[in-house]
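Please decode residue identities from the backbone states below.
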């Protein structure tokens, strides 16, 4: 397991929580304890784990994926809703998973299947006046949508991978919620009480690690592709990644801020300011004009994503 370092959240400042890791627990031990303790709760649905393993296995075929998905009629329905929606803009109605695999490819259908099975994880009541798991899901859908629109603007393909990366980037906050909701309440209250406060620095004080750390560790536990673990672990600090690994993390970083511009898009307490630094934009070869185009498309595209996955 790796725990990401972060300029905003130096490990040396960590004050780990006593009950989970003991007074001398390191940041990495805190994360390991959390993931171990919540592993019975934070399991992906069995079907999603099967889908991940099928597509990671180079010998698997479209038929293998079809066989797994077809065992879950509700998931089939949701996948077909996604592929037939304006989300993909495909002409005509796609009536079967096999047809979807033919038209979109195995990898795209896998990403859609994972996205379609994630909503269940974002459960739980209102934690504070500014936070509920549902707010986080609303935010996740907005960031997923914005990341997909950025991928389209950049003409790099990978729209469904971008969507999924945006959808799961803040999953570490769900780890915090399931592990110790009182501490998460403390983090959120402190962040609310001090305008401009850096939520990640507060997480270090209260939990001993950040939602980037918890999320990337959970992604490893789930055996998600390494690229997702990297994005989750660096979505606030993409420029710390080596040049050749930072593209998707930079896209999610930008999408996170674009989503946070509109309060209707749910949770945004971990974004200190909405500025998008030029070095991040340059890393993905986007201009402010590109961002304006993505911004203009977001409200309608988010509505579509909410209609099919919300
Ligand atoms: Fe975040
Ligand atoms: Fe976020």
């Amino acid at each position: 397991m790796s725990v990401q370092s972060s300029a905003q959240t130096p490990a040396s400042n960590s004050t780990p929580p006593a009950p989970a890791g003991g007074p001398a627990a390191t940041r990495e031990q805190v994360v390991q304890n959390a993931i171990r303790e919540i592993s019975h709760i934070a399991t992906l649905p069995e079907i999603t784990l099967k889908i991940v393993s099928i597509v990671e296995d180079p010998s698997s075929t479209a038929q293998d994926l079809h066989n797994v998905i077809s065992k879950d009629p509700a998931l089939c329905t949701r996948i077909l809703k996604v592929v037939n929606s304006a989300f993909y803009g495909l002409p005509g109605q796609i009536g079967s998973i096999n047809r979807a695999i033919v038209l979109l490819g195995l990898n795209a259908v896998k990403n859609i299947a994972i996205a379609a099975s994630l909503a269940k994880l974002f459960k739980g009541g209102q934690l504070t006046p500014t936070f509920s798991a549902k707010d986080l899901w609303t935010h996740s859908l907005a960031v997923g949508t914005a990341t997909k629109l950025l991928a389209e603007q950049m003409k790099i393909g990978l729209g469904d991978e971008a969507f999924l990366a945006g959808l799961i980037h803040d999953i570490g906050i769900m780890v915090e919620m399931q592990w110790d909701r009182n501490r998460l309440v403390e983090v959120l209250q402190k962040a609310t009480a001090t305008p401009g406060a850096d939520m990640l620095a507060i997480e270090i004080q209260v939990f001993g690690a950040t939602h980037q750390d918890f999320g990337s560790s959970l992604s490893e536990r789930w055996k998600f592709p390494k690229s997702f673990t990297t994005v989750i672990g660096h979505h606030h600090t993409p420029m710390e990644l080596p040049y050749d690994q930072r593209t998707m993390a930079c896209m999610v970083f930008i999408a996170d801020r674009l989503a946070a511009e509109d309060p209707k898009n749910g949770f945004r307490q971990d974004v200190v300011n909405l500025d998008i630094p030029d070095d991040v934009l340059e890393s993905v070869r986007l201009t402010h004009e590109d961002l304006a185009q993505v911004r203009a498309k977001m409200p309608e595209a988010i509505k579509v994503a909410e209609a099919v996955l919300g």
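Observation: Residues 1-17 have pLDDT under 50 and may be disordered.
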